[in-house]
Design goal:
The chain is an alpha+beta fold. It has helices spanning 5-16, 42-49, 63-71, 87-90, 113-119, 155-179, 204-207, 215-224, 291-296; strands spanning 24-25, 30-32, 37-39, 54-55, 77-80, 97-101, 124-131, 141-148, 231-235, 238-248, 259-261, 267-271, 274-283, 289-290. Strand 9 (231-235) and strand 10 (238-248) form a beta hairpin. The longest helix has 25 residues, at 155-179. The protein starts with a helix and ends in a 5-residue tail after the last helix.
Amino acid sequence: MGTPEFAVASLAALLDAGEEVVAVVTVADKPAGRGQKLQESAVKKFALSKNIPVLQPVKLKDPAFLEELKRFRADLQVVVAFRMLPEQVWNMPPKGTINVHASLLPQYRGAAPINHAIINGEKESGVTTFLLQHEIDTGNVLFKETVPIGPDDTAGDLHDRLMQVGAQLLVKTVNALKESDYKGIAQSDLDPSTPLKSAPKIFKEDCNIDWNRPTAVVYNQIRGLSPYPTAFTVFQEKTLKIFRCHIEKTPIKETPGQYLTDGKTYLKFAAVDGYIHVDEVQLEGKKRMPVADFLRGVRLG
């Protein structure tokens, strides 16, 4: 059960390991782009290429869907980047339903663990496999694997690494469950004294850069939201998305949010304790590009 590219790696790893994937559940096709053509999820495209039956329920409690799912008689269900399941779905197989989550649970429960880990300046993240239960992301932990976060890593960089690590951890988990009734470890028994950080869904207001903050905080926000949904600021009354940047730690003379540029090679914005040099940007209505290309095509003054 999955939707985006992140889930494809796990499905491919199961097939490569020789597991029998009897069906795939994904979202319904959605209209997208200027022509509003129906787009299939990455998981659906991959499943069809492997001749795996695909189910696309609009409602997961639909009796017709539940009956169809039951007919596959799966021993185990796997969820990777999908949606919250009702109990009659996750409790259906004899081995239960496991989830691949892109954080070291119980830290960063929620919809956007990769983004929030980088926004918060974490030095490491990882992947956890766990058994689903009633509360989201709270089930017994089966296995974990830690992945370091580099100082310049974006959410996209970390996503790609966790996608591959998670796929292999899933295969390890499935093998363990085949051999025994491994029930895992309750999350309350894992680092009970450490304050929990959450990873809620990110909204547009979370992407708007507040220049009245330190450069390190702005820098982490930009890389934690790159390439999607992308941090932005207002530049010449238009939205300017920022994908990559670097910090200049020198005292500012400008008001936070003001920009400086030579019109050719650099564009930097003042924060409270220095400047953020933007390296890769996208102006509203334009393509993503390096800052030098952007400056060649914009009128300043």
